[in-house]
Design goal:
It is built from 19 helices and no strands. The chain has 395 residues and is mainly α. The protein has a single domain (10-180, 199-386), classed as Growth Hormone, Chain: A (Up-down Bundle), CATH 1.20.1250.
């Protein structure tokens, strides 16, 4: 059942889809420029992703309880202003240290977008409808990781990578009038009344909730594997396999098409199977694809196709895993959906910190480190999905 009258309109879908896409857009658009940034700034460009994910993970833990107390729209407006300001700082940076700092600042604002979009969905929809809506938004938000790298590749062909961040600043500013059309889905009557400091105690409640944390672990481990590809693939494809930076975006976009296709299919699947059943199958497929990726990377079998094809299968499963795990996790804690969404987002995207640091420390110029991280953490996601923490695993 819907918890509030939901304006189920195209504008709502587009706005929420744009908000959900902010994380991907903030990083994917400059992926083709990372090798050039490393050369220009004489540093490790992977750390710019690490900085963003640190800010993104930590700030959500603040914004979640705030949104439960004051509503969803005010934090969204504040977040867009901070995102735009951080993007300007990145554009003006001339060292890795500076850009990492501004990436953290940028992330403090950007994190409000997908986190509060999830909370809005939980405010408006029941469990099955929420999973369907998340799948729909996955299709809409997939435009960002498809267009982003392609656009970024063209920008660096015509000018410098600084222009990419100027573009992000304009996008953040353009979202402000769009947010005026978004309804306030968390009315005053449903807001938390306790002091703000007390609201942070909800994280302890969530961390102690084994059922909730099982789903969070499932999606967080999957995203650790996914970020290994997101951060590592520019160097693997461009430097190792010699793909032109302008064409890197096409290989990246291929994976997103798989996510979109499975997200569309998932809208039907959630009406026929339990969320747990879908998660078990999807994470098993992802783990097998990760294992094949590592096998090809270490043996050299298939060359670039030995990486591209199994990664495509692995990435496609995100169309089921992210939507089902998030919907199942939020369903059990509707009274603190803002804090719950914040914790999910913090651990989901914060998990990418692990990938980026591992790649920065151990990447050897081959696909092997990236592929090994994908395989190990995809298996971890599968194990989390297989756990049975109550007599009936059906949601």
């Amino acid at each position: 059942m819907k918890t509030t009258a939901a304006p189920d309109t195209l504008s709502l879908i587009l706005i929420l889809g744009a908000l959900m896409a902010f994380t991907s857009l903030s990083t994917d658009i400059y992926l083709p420029a990372m090798p050039q940034m490393s050369a220009d700034l004489h540093g490790n460009a992977e750390l710019t992703v690490t900085g963003f994910l640190i800010g993104f993970a930590v700030a959500q833990l603040f914004w979640g309880p705030v949104s439960d107390r004051i509503g969803r729209k005010k934090p969204l407006f504040a977040g867009m202003v901070l995102f735009a300001a951080g993007s300007v700082g990145c554009a003006l940076s001339d060292s890795i240290g500076e850009i990492v700092f501004w990436r953290v600042f940028q992330a403090v604002g950007a994190c409000t977008a997908p986190m509060l979009a999830r909370a809005v969905i939980r405010d408006l929809y029941g469990q099955a409808q929420a999973a369907q809506m998340l799948s729909t938004l996955t299709v809409v938000m997939a435009a960002a990781p498809i267009i982003g790298p392609l656009l970024g590749g063209q920008i660096i062909r015509l000018t410098s990578w600084h222009a990419i961040f100027w573009l992000l600043a304009l996008i953040g500013a353009a979202m402000l009038p769009a947010l005026l059309k978004l309804p306030e889905t968390h009315p005053a009557a449903k807001r938390r009344r306790e002091p703000l400091w007390h609201a942070f105690s909800h994280y302890g409640e969530l961390l102690a909730n084994k059922i909730f944390m099982r789903y969070v672990a499932c999606v967080a481990l999957f995203y650790t594997a996914a970020y290994a590809f997101i951060v590592g693939s520019p160097f693997v494809y461009i430097d190792y396999f010699g793909i032109d930076a302008q064409h890197y975006g096409w290989l990246f976009a291929l994976n997103i098409l798989g996510v979109m296709a499975l997200s569309v299919i998932n809208r039907r699947l959630v009406n026929r199977f339990s969320l747990d059943q879908l998660l078990r199958v999807a994470t098993t497929v992802a783990a097998l694809a990760g294992f094949i990726t590592a096998l090809c990377a270490y043996s050299g079998f298939g060359g670039i196709y030995g990486i591209v094809l199994p990664v495509f299968v692995f990435f496609a499963t995100n169309g089921i895993i992210a939507a089902c795990a998030t919907a199942a996790a939020l369903n059990g804690v509707p009274h603190i959906a803002g804090a719950a969404s914040a914790l999910i987002g913090s651990l989901q995207y914060g998990s990418g910190i692990v990938s980026s640091l591992l790649l920065a420390a151990f990447a050897d110029g081959t696909p092997q480190t990236m592929a090994l991280i994908i395989a190990v953490f995809a298996v971890g996601s599968m194990i989390a999905a297989q756990l049975r923490l109550r007599p009936s695993a059906s949601i």
